[in-house]
Amino acid sequence: MDEMILETERLVLRKLEQSDFREACKLLQDPEVMYAYEGAFSDQEVQVWLDKMFRRYENDGFALWAVVEKGSGELIGQCGITYQEYNGGWVPEVGYLFRKEFWHKGFATEAAIACKEYAFQVLDFDDVYSIIRDSNVASQNVARRNGMSEVDILIKYYRGVEMPHIVFRASRKNI
Fold first, then answer.
1. For 9-56, how does the pLDDT look when each residue is reduced to its tens digit (9 = 90+)?
2. Which one is predicted more confidently, 149 or 4?
3. Which of 14, 138, 164, 166 lies at a 20 to 30 A Cα distance from 150?
4. What is the pLDDT of residue 175?
């Protein structure tokens, strides 16, 4: 196993690598998984996504990580912490994307909780956010199970589409 960042009961989170390209395609090229991004990614867009994560590892020390299911060793999704623009500044966001066949098994919640704890305990953030498209009820439910509360609504523009997003926040003082 490559450089492990986090471990939970069923999952290992590690840095994404270029060799994960095909596995990333399984996730980022699925139109159902990517509906919140207005559609599946091309091979080129998957590479741009990976390159962005690699830059974030280098610049921020964190980003979305590969989520590997311990039992199978399979890369089932991505979860981690990225800076997102909010309220005129940059905030740490717990984000998650999982392959469709691993939905509704508690993996996203398990990984998101571990990332929130990492953000508080290792990265020393006082607050963490999840900014989720208003139509993505499943991800909103993960945020709630992660101890987050709705604090705002904002509009994001992606691929020329106006998308309302709900801003969720968890504070270290509330844990």
1. 999 999 999 999 999 999 999 988 988 777 899 999 999 999 999 999
2. 149
3. 14
4. 62
CATH 1.20.1250.20 fits 4-125, yes or no: no
SS3 119: helix
Task: Using the structure block, give the residue that is written with the tokens 């997003």.
Answer: 165
Cα distances (Å, whole numbers) of residue 64 to 55, 133, 173:
11, 18, 24
DSSP 40: P
- Total residue count of the chain as it appears in this document: 175
In contact, 120 and 128? CB cutoff 8 Å: yes
Amino acid (one-letter) located at 160: G
Q: Are 114 and 120 in contact (CB under 8 A)?
A: no
Q: How many helices (H) and strands (E) does the chain have?
A: 4, 8
Q: At how many degrees (to 10) do helices 43-60 and 21-28 cross?
A: 110
Q: Which two tokens stand for residue 155?
A: 């509009």
Distance CA 89, CA 18 (A): 30
Mean pLDDT across the chain, nearest whole number? 94
